Amino acid sequence: MSNRAPANPAPAADNRQKLLEATMRRYQYRPDALIEVLHKAQELYGHLSPQLLASIARNLHLPPSRVYGVATFYHFFSLKPQGEHTCTVCLGTACYVKGAMEILTTLETEAGLKAGHTSPDGRLSLLTARCLGACGIAPVVVLDGVVIGHADAETLRARLHALLEETPVAS
Amino acid sequence: MAARTLTIDGRLVSARAGESILEAARDAGIHIPTLCYLEGLSEMGACRLCLVEVTGSNRLLPACLTPVSEGMEVHTATERLREHRRAIVELLFAERNHVCAVCVASGNCELQNLAIRVGMTHVRYDYLNPVCAVDISHPQFGIDHNRCVLCARCVRACDEVEGVHTWDIAGRGVNARVITDLGVPWGEAESCTSCGKCLLACPTGAIFRRGTSVAELERDPKRIALIVASRQERW
Ligand code: SF4
Ligand code: SF4
Ligand code: FES
Ligand code: FES
Asked: Does A66 contact B at CB distance below 8 Å?
């Protein structure tokens, strides 16, 4: 397994905005694409922050309250911030081919959490991404900002387990 | 304009094609109780108070959304409908905390009037007693969620008449609430122009003018229809 410390805390962060932009562009910033765009944002960020919702509202020319109404109507969307720990499983083509789905299912079971969500106790957010640009070391998982290449399900399950066993940071 | 002839409660009524049963009934002086409907706003069909029976259909139909048709036989006051309306009003009372005695709208509240009209004597359902906030962050207005019936009249007045869509409904089921902008306190909602149209539209004491005490509230929802009508008449 090759670990490498990231240059900045969340390596996936840089292109998330771009990816979201691309999605909105693909739908030509049409207001009726709101659900798809929220979906994408949730997938990328793990939760929909007020800033994110505001920028989506601006881009799609929708009233903020409309966007908020839709985002709170569906249980799929979460407005709460990310958990204390975040784990992002890449489901891009290269990672997918190398068994990313198996990793994701294992982690979902371990955490008792569906991808794109934060545990009720706020300890963990389990996220997915499409191609983190590290296909050479696929499958890739980012655990608390640390990129883990050539990831395998069992090792990750153990690491996640250990992480969640630690005493929670007092909030 | 094409005319349609129908009967409402046995009376022969003529209406314009495309008109709703509700409009036809009102023109004929037949009262059908409503709550989410407000003249001047789009119909939403949310409250189901205006349900009527139409011969040939075993479903109850919302009068505000159902267009008239030739030869239609409408019944607005059967025992089944009376019971149904009583149940709806009771459910509305059970859902939030309507303490009329301390409400600014008392005596001037559509929900209270409905309760009287449908002959509600008590509520057969358990009160949910939800914890609801009162937001007085706006310098001129306040919103008391205890009294909100989620009719969305504020949402539509603000969107369709004022044109800024400050309000919307967030969440669903018992957790649904009207919210402003991204769920921020009303006073922080940048889209609000403080025009007061939501206050005009609100059927209960949920939206109130600050500094108004019990029985002092002047609110006339008909002004929404007037604004809309006068806007259409330009010469
Ligand atoms: S005061 Fe006017 S702009 Fe503000 S929320 Fe009410 S209707 Fe909308
Ligand atoms: S605040 Fe008033 S107008 Fe708005 S949904 Fe509630 S009851 Fe209806
Ligand atoms: S597909 Fe996972 S990094 Fe490219
Ligand atoms: S008035 Fe018709 S459904 Fe509310």
From this structure: yes
Low-confidence stretches of chain B (pLDDT beneath 50): 215
Range list of β-strands (E), chain A? 3-4, 85-90, 117-118, 124-129, 141-143, 146-148
pTM over 0.90: no
> What does the pLDDT read at residue A169?
58
Paired sense of beta strands B3-8 and A146-148, if any: unpaired
Sheet-wide strand order for A124-129: A3-4, A146-148, A141-143, A85-90, A124-129, A117-118
Q: Burial-class residue A126 by CB neighbours within 10 Å (0-12, 13-18, 19+).
A: buried
As a whole number of angstroms, the distance between CA B2 and CA A171 comes to: 69
Give the C-alpha distances (Å, rounded to integers) separating B89 from B65, B113, B153, B163: 20, 10, 17, 31
- For residue A76, CA distances in Å to A39, A83, B53, B105 come to 8, 16, 38, 38
Amino acid in position A81: P
Question: Measured between alpha carbons, how far is A140 from B135 in angstroms, rounded to an integer?
Answer: 47
Q: How far apart are CA A88 and CA A95, in angstroms?
A: 12
Domains along chain A with CATH numbers: 16-73 (1.10.10.1590), 85-165 (3.40.30.10)
Cα A113 to Cα A83: distance, rounded to the nearest angstrom: 12
Of A50, A53, A69, the CB nearest to B168: A69
H or E segment to which residue B180 belongs:
strand B177-180
Q: Taking CB atoms and an 8 Å cutoff, what residues of chain A touch B189?
A: 65
Shortest alpha-carbon distance between residue A17 and chain B (Å): 20
| Sequence-ordered list of residues with C-beta below 8 angstroms from that of B26, at least 6 positions apart, any chain | B32
Q: Does A28 touch chain B (CB under 8 A)?
A: no
pLDDT < 70 stretches in chain A:
1-14, 75, 167-171
Q: Does A133 touch chain B (CB under 8 A)?
A: no
Position A11 scores a pLDDT of 46
Q: How far is it, in rounded angstroms, from Cα B154 to Cα B2?
A: 33
Q: pLDDT digits over A35-83, tens only?
A: 999 999 988 887 899 999 999 999 999 999 999 999 998 867 888 777 8
In terms of DSSP bridges, do strands A124-129 and A117-118 run parallel, antiparallel, or are they unpaired? antiparallel
All domains of chain B, ordered by start, with CATH? 3-77 (3.10.20.740), 84-234 (3.30.70.20)
